[in-house]
Design goal:
Helix 8 links the parallel strand 11 and strand 12. The protein has 15 helices and 16 strands. The protein is of the alpha/beta class and 376 residues long. The radius of gyration is 20 Å and the shape is globular. The chain has an eight-stranded parallel beta sheet. The protein has a three-stranded antiparallel beta sheet with strand order 1-2-3. The protein has two domains: 270 residues, Queuine tRNA-ribosyltransferase-like (TIM Barrel, Alpha-Beta Barrel); 94 residues, no CATH class.
């Protein structure tokens, strides 16, 4: 294969279990640990693509379920693919739609073949199977694609967790076969480990998927109600059974503390709506801790949002002005806080990468968690 069309992972440094690496794709290199801003419907809410790139993001995430419903995968393909459609030239990862289908439990029907559901937009009927999920992701042109899986909300009965895990394994095989049909050189399909918080099931899932030989592995089905400590125990019971020479992606996570603790255990990739969703509701992530800019204490505070941030907006706009914007419902408030939060998350990942390279991750993690525990 032409080197320019190659997908691969290179481990550059380790500090304990924490890993510093690089994922190579035809559209660019992804520095890991990496946080992927979520561009659900071909947009990271309230931000220009150029702003997301300027914040330091090497890759963002698109959503198969939402894009298949609107504007439609075939239409995006006719318009040149997701990268050109949304003007994002760097890598894109698409999820499979499995998580969104879980949230539609009241209006969907699950079978061995796939999931039948009605659109939340217009009520139209759709069927999503492993084959169709991969076809959609390939029509979108995603650089990294995810197998179709069943994601359960926790807590759940063990027999249900076993059933969903085993179904996801069968769907992984079908997803891989579909990717061989629809995929292009340089694209990659990741498997998803399931099993709830049951460590035996997690190991069984991981070992079965590793035997299928995927280029990357995700840990799914966490951050769905099990709690922070249970999530970390599940990671500790899963990551040792995944290949050291391939990327590891923890789906849908999370808070800055979640990211630090997960990197400490060996995770390479993350995504979460938290930076932009919180920004739209007036909550800022700063190096001095979380700031609820709606609070009255900021009404006459002329200090910058975060003097330690590398984001120009976090240094240039006062807390008083941001308080006014948010309390007035002005769009600019949501835009600025979404940008500063996105920038903060990218700075956090960059700081972790440097700490791992320099062999000081543990000291950095302890000091940083203490700083971030504050709130105002």
């Amino acid at each position: 294969m032409n080197e320019k069309l190659h997908f691969g992972y290179r481990l550059l440094a380790r500090d304990g279990h924490a890993r510093r690496g690089e994922i190579s794709t035809p559209r660019g290199t992804i520095r890991t640990p990496a946080f992927m801003p979520v561009g659900t419907v071909a947009t990271v809410k309230a931000l220009y693509p150029e702003q997301v790139a300027a914040a330091g993001a090497d890759i963002l995430l698109g959503n198969t379920y939402h894009l298949m419903l609107r504007p439609g995968a075939e239409r995006v393909a006719r318009l040149g693919g997701l990268h050109g459609f949304m003007r994002w030239p760097k890598p894109i990862l698409t999820d499979s739609g499995g998580f969104q289908v879980m949230s539609l439990s009241k209006i969907r029907k699950l079978t061995e073949n796939g999931v039948e559901f009605r659109s939340h937009i217009d009520g139209s009927k759709h069927i999503l199977t492993p084959e169709r999920s991969i076809e959609i992701q390939c029509l979108l042109g995603a650089d990294i694609q995810m197998q179709f899986d069943e994601c359960l909300e926790l807590p759940a009965e063990r027999n249900e967790i076993v059933r969903a895990m085993e179904l996801s394994l069968r769907w992984a095989e079908r997803s891989k076969m579909a990717f061989e049909q629809y995929g292009s050189a340089g694209q990659a399909l990741f498997a998803i480990v399931q099993g709830g918080t049951d460590l035996d099931l997690r190991r069984r899932s991981a070992e079965a998927l590793v035997a299928m030989d995927f280029p990357g592995y995700a840990v799914g089905g966490l951050a769905v109600g099990e709690g922070h400590e249970a999530m970390l125990r599940a990671l500790e019971g899963t990551l040792p059974f995944l290949p050291a020479d391939k990327p590891r992606y923890l789906m849908g996570v999370g808070t800055p503390e979640d990211l630090i603790e997960s990197v400490r255990r060996g995770v390479d990739m993350f995504d979460c709506v938290m930076p932009t969703r919180n920004g739209r509701h007036g909550l800022a992530f700063t190096w001095g801790g979380k700031v609820n800019i709606r609070n009255a204490c900021h009404a006459e505070d002329l200090s910058p949002l975060d003097p330690d941030s590398t984001c120009p907006a976090a240094q240039q706009y006062s807390r008083a002005y941001l308080h006014h914007l948010v309390r007035s419902g002005e769009l600019l408030g949501a835009m600025i806080l979404s940008l500063t939060n996105t920038w903060f998350y990218q700075d956090l990942m960059a700081a972790m990468r440097s700490a791992i390279e320099e062999g000081r991750f543990e000291d950095w993690a302890s000091a940083t968690k203490a700083r971030l525990a504050k709130a105002a």
